[in-house]
Write a structure and sequence with these properties.
Belongs to the pantothenate synthetase family. This protein is an alpha/beta fold and 278 residues long. The protein has nine helices and nine strands. The protein is globular. The structure holds adenosine monophosphate.
Length: 278
């Protein structure tokens, strides 16, 4: 496994890799969810590249950029274990040579205004711009993203389709703790009490999924009831709970749909989502 920092080092190492190349972009602080992405790339590609970069452009003012967990040594051990070929851990100046952002940005379309986009203005432009840069710099055949960030995955599929990037975008199912909590690098912020309250998210999604044979209203009612046990108690503040089509458009009468939730538990913001069949 090679570990590189600068653009020049990366380009030299990239040129040695056999095709097809799989890319797994991450912000580090790797957990079993990231490991599943790396393993999927390892299973399907001749070479696996991962980027390890906390992207300032996707954090808003007052968000957790400064305190975001940084655990490069432990991350490298995970990468080594999965059999990654090349880890690129650039500095901010390597990705943004003109300062912490770009002049030109990739703006998400209408899907970028919903859900997370409504709560975090500019977030998805920051995500799509850095993903666009890494896709151009790495030129992978396939790129792997988690369903955990379902709206992000949807927008990255649209980015690749709409701008003809020629990369196959692969979605990987969410990895959870045995009690249902979706793995997230931000879970380290949770106190034991907060972690218990955070379980309301996955419980609400499961309740919604189980009610899906009764239709969309039943899904929302069941999930809301489960969240309501915690919401407003001060322990949990819900940003949204929404049922949408799999493309995040209109809810279908029948068939596959997606139930998505975001809530703050103390000062930690958590998101989760699940597939439902109406
Ligand atoms: P992050 O480092 O949080 O930017 O995440 C890097 C990638 O890992 C993104 O594609 C995420 O969707 C994915 N990811 C994060 N958490 C999980 C999880 N629990 N299960 C599957 N994928 C995940």
């Amino acid at each position: 496994m090679r570990v590189v920092r600068t653009r020049a080092e990366f380009a030299a190492a990239r040129a040695q890799l056999p095709a097809p190349v799989g890319l797994v972009p991450t912000m580090g602080a790797l957990h079993a969810g990231h490991r599943a992405l790396l393993q999927a790339a390892r299973d399907e590609c001749a070479a696996v590249v991962t980027t390890n970069f906390v992207n300032p452009m996707q954090f808003g003012p007052g968000e957790d950029l400064a305190k975001y967990p940084r655990t490069l040594d432990a991350d490298l051990a995970v990468c080594e274990d999965v059999g990654v070929d090349l880890v690129w851990a650039p500095g901010v100046e390597d990705v943004y040579p003109r300062g912490g952002a770009t002049r030109v940005r990739i703006e998400p379309g209408p899907v970028g205004d919903l859900l997370e986009g409504a709560v975090r203005p500019g977030h998805f432009a920051g995500v799509l711009t850095v993903v666009g840069k890494f896709l151009n710099l790495v030129r992978p055949d396939r790129a792997y993203f988690g369903e955990k960030d379902y709206q992000q995955l949807t927008l990255i599929r649209q980015l690749s389709d709409d701008l003809d990037l020629g990369v196959v975008i692969v979605g990987v199912p969410t990895v959870r703790e045995p009690d249902g909590l979706a793995l997230s690098s931000r879970n380290v912020y949770l106190s034991p009490d907060e972690r218990r309250h955070a379980l309301a998210l996955s419980r609400a999604l499961s309740a919604g999924r189980d009610a899906a044979p009764q239709g969309a209203l039943a899904v929302i009612a069941a999930a809301t009831a489960e969240l309501g046990r915690e919401d407003g108690t001060g322990a949990l503040a819900v940003d949204y709970l929404e049922l949408r089509g799999t493309d995040l458009g209109e809810i279908p009468e029948h068939g596959p749909a997606r139930l998505l939730v975001a809530a703050r538990v103390g000062s930690t913001r958590l998101i989760d989502n699940v597939a439902v069949t109406l």
